[in-house]
């Protein structure tokens, strides 16, 4: 039986499962979706981390649960989907957003780094909707959002395995639409440019550390400031920029938009 929601909004009554909801883009989206009336299953590696997001939603009068799961494990993905259905009755939207950075180039990259990045950033995106698809297909309705990246569309130096995974996410999204569009399922990929979340700032810190910086924080910030200059919009992204696109794509307002990779990148890929 589907849970009852009293709030109004652009996602009223929709049950949304968001992975990577403990931080960055996923957390901002979970909070934004809840403001618009969604019932939100917040998933992250550790239940205690993601409970912060769920508690904020509940504190603001919304409905949410916190679930710990590793999206690269089929067992965990099946469990998080079952827990969502148990709590809220169904899954209307999966936002497969969890991800890790993937530094390296084709010559120096170690095999274990490749394997983990592909496991989380590519296989984890597939597994995040695999089990929910059964529920969606049975009801003839569902929406999948997959977080890709501009790195899956254009070359960005030093992110070889990440780019491979994100390019795969875009291809997988199109495949989902061809296979399941006739059964009422929409799917789109979101391709953000640089948004200084922990995933990004950790990468910049690691880079300046490796270069022998003695003023790590300032040098990492200087790197981000340099990157911002490459964006025609004149700034890096904010988590709210991505959450706004995710909200639109999750809602029925975008009901004829499917199979697309949509950039939210301050014009980076236009330059
Ligand atoms: P973030 O590090 O702030 O958040 C990512 C979250 O995913 C973390 O809470 C982390 O614990 C979780 N996570 C990692 N591995 C997981 C796993 N195996 N199972 C479950 N949860 C896991 O980073 P973010 O920037 O918010 O990243 C969100 C998504 O956006 C990622 O897919 C990332 O690749 C993508 N992205 C980010 C940017 C950017 O500039 N921030 C740009 C393009 C794409």
What count of domains describes the coordinates? 2
Estimate the helix proportion, in percent. 40-55%
CATH topology label of the largest domain: Rossmann fold
Order of helices and strands: EHEHEHEHEHEHHHE
Please tell me the overall pLDDT: 96
Largest sheet: 7 strands, parallel
Percentage of residues in strands: 5-15%
Query: Rg from C-alpha positions?
Result: 18 Å
Annotation, overall tally of beta strands:
7
Unreliable spans are none
At the first level of CATH, what is the class of the largest domain? Alpha Beta
Structural class: alpha/beta
Strand order of the largest sheet: 3-2-1-4-5-6-7
Shape: globular
What's the name of the CATH homologous superfamily of the largest domain? NAD(P)-binding Rossmann-like Domain
Bound molecules: nicotinamide-adenine-dinucleotide
Please state the second-level CATH architecture of the largest domain.
3-Layer(aba) Sandwich
Q: Could you explain the architecture of this structure?
A:
The chain has a 7-stranded parallel beta sheet, with helices on both faces. α4 (111-139) packs parallel to α5 (160-180) and α6 (198-210) packs across α7. α1 (24-35) links the parallel β1 (15-19) and β2. 47% of the residues lie in helices and 14% in strands. The protein folds into 2 domains: 15-194 and 238-264, NAD(P)-binding Rossmann-like Domain (Rossmann fold), CATH 3.40.50.720; 196-236, no CATH class. The chain has 8 helices and 7 strands, in the order βαβαβαβαβαβαααβ. The protein has 271 residues and is an alpha/beta fold. The chain has helices spanning 24-35, 47-59, 74-88, 111-139, 160-180, 198-210, 216-228, 239-250; strands spanning 15-19, 39-44, 63-68, 93-96, 142-147, 185-192, 261-264. The model has no long low-confidence stretch (mean pLDDT 96). Nicotinamide-adenine-dinucleotide is lined by residues 19-20, 22-26, 44-45, 70-72, 97-100, 120, 124, 147, 149, 192, 194-195, 197-200. Nicotinamide-adenine-dinucleotide (NAD) binds at residues 19-20, 22-26, 44-45, 70-72, 97-100, 120, 124, 147, 149, 192, 194-195, 197-200.
């Amino acid at each position: 039986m589907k849970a009852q929601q009293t709030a109004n909004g652009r996602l009223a009554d929709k049950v949304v499962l968001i992975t990577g909801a403990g931080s960055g883009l996923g957390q901002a989206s979970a909070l934004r979706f809840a403001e618009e009336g969604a019932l939100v299953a917040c998933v992250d590696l550790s239940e205690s981390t993601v409970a912060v997001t769920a508690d904020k939603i509940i504190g603001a009068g919304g409905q949410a649960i916190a679930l710990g799961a590793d999206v690269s494990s089929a067992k965990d993905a099946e469990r998080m989907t079952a827990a969502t259905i148990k709590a809220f009755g169904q899954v209307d939207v999966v936002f497969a957003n969890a991800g890790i950075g993937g530094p390296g180039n084709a010559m120096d990259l170690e095999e274990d780094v490749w394997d983990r990045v592909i496991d989380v950033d590519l296989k984890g995106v597939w597994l995040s909707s695999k089990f929910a698809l059964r529920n969606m297909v049975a009801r003839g309705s569902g929406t999948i959002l997959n977080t890709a990246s501009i790195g899956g569309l254009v070359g960005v130096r030093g992110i070889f395995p990440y780019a491979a995974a994100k390019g795969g996410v875009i291809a997988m999204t199109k495949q989902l639409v061809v296979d399941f569009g006739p059964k009422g399922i929409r799917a789109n990929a979101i391709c953000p440019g640089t948004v200084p979340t922990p995933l990004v700032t950790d990468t910049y810190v690691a880079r300046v550390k490796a270069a022998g910086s003695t003023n790590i924080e300032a040098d990492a910030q200087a790197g981000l400031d340099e990157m911002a200059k490459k964006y025609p919009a004149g700034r890096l992204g904010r988590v709210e920029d991505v959450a706004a696109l995710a909200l639109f794509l999750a809602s029925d307002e975008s009901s004829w938009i499917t199979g697309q990779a949509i950039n939210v990148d301050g014009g980076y890929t236009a330059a």
